[in-house]
Amino acid sequence: MFDLKSIVLNVKSVLFNIKSDVLDIKSAVFNIKHNRLDITSIIPVQIEKRNQ
Fold it and tell me: How far apart (Å, rounded) are the C-alpha atoms in residues 22 and 31?
């Protein structure tokens, strides 16, 4: 029984690690999207400055 419990705990910790990795990936993707928005908002400003 003890072995079974430890296996279950290991599986749970692995699943928890996977979930946290997925969250990290999601936040990384969100940051990339956010950075893209920043880039698209910066570029027109630079073009406007050049035209002046």
Answer: 14
Range list of H helices, 1-52: 2-51
Neighbours of 25 (CB within 10 A): 10
- Give the three-state DSSP class for 48: helix
1 has pLDDT over 70: no
CA dihedral defined by 32, 33, 36, 40, rounded to 10 degrees? -170
Instruction: Output the pTM of the full model.
Output: 0.50
For residue 19, the one-letter residue type is K
